[in-house]
Design a protein that fits this description.
By secondary structure, the chain is an alpha/beta fold. The protein has 2 domains: about 130 residues, Rossmann fold (3-Layer(aba) Sandwich); about 100 residues, Dihydrodipicolinate Reductase, domain 2 (2-Layer Sandwich), CATH 3.30.360. It has 8 helices and 11 strands. A 6-stranded parallel β-sheet has the order 2-1-3-4-5-11, sandwiched between helices. The chain has a 5-stranded mixed β-sheet with strand order 7-8-6-9-10. A hairpin with a 4-residue loop joins strand 9 and strand 10. The longest helix is centred in the middle third of the chain and has 17 residues. The chain is elongated, with a radius of gyration of 19 Å.
Length: about 240
């Protein structure tokens, strides 16, 4: 496939290596030097774009891809307040949009484990639940997109929790503690605690490699499809 990399930081460079190792061509790289000059014309004829940038530029990048008729795979978080408009634009252009808050195969299995545990714990109100997420200091959004996805899984299954907060929680709120330190790729912990014990599940990423590999798999999956896609589609969950 001919692939555009939109965003060429640490993640973009890791994705590039995996793409080349799997026989793909990097036909366009968009970084800080040329981001403001790229138009949809530059994307035309490519098979797929992989987008890892920042919340301020993500939606613009998606629309460029839709205008060019190029499927876009994105792992940028922090823009979901504009999700409805993005999906509407994708449909209007008969486009393809694969979004995941986290492309790691292990994290997406962890999402399913989180829901399963929530279903079991819903029957036991003596257990309160909270979450801790830890990321590198360059991460701009808090809580992480992965933490928000985990929180949504809890809201689906645990009736006594309906929203999340970074501050002191009310009874119906899930408290998320967001830590930023060093170069941590990502650690997410969900804890159910009662007066007598606690149950803890954790996913800890060892490197960016798992995220990047999942993004390339998503690009291979999405390039000949239409509509809104996610990791549940890719993993057939």
């Amino acid at each position: 496939m001919k692939i555009a990399l939109i965003g060429y930081g640490k993640m973009g460079k890791t994705i590039e290596k995996i793409c080349l190792d799997r026989g793909h061509e990097i036909a366009l790289v968009v970084d800080e030097q040329n981001a403001n000059s790229i138009t949809s014309k530059d994307l035309e004829g490519l098979d797929v774009a992989i987008e890892f940038t920042n919340p301020a530029s993500a939606v613009k990048n998606y629309n460029l891809c839709f205008d060019a008729g190029v499927p876009v795979v994105s792992g940028t978080t922090g823009w979901l307040d504009q999700e409805a408009a993005v999906i509407e634009q994708m449909k209007a252009k008969d486009g393809t949009f694969f979004y995941a808050s986290n492309f790691s195969l292990g994290v997406n299995l962890f999402f399913e484990l989180n829901k399963k545990l929530g279903q079991m714990m819903n029957r036991f109100p003596d257990y309160d639940v909270d979450m801790v997420e830890v990321h590198h200091t360059q991460k701009l959004d808090a809580p992480s997109g992965t933490a928000i996805t985990l929180a949504e899984g809890i809201f689906e299954t645990v009736d006594r929790k309906t929203s999340w907060t970074l501050d002191a929680p009310k009874e119906e709120q899930l408290h998320i503690e967001a830590e930023r330190r060093g170069d941590v790729p990502g650690i997410h912990t969900v804890k159910y605690e009662s007066e007598v014990d606690e149950i803890v599940i954790t996913h800890s990423a060892k490197s960016r490699q798992g995220f990047a590999f999942g993004a390339v798999l998503a690009a291979e999956f999405a390039f000949d499809k239409k509509g809104a896609l996610n990791m549940r589609d890719l993993l057939n969950l």
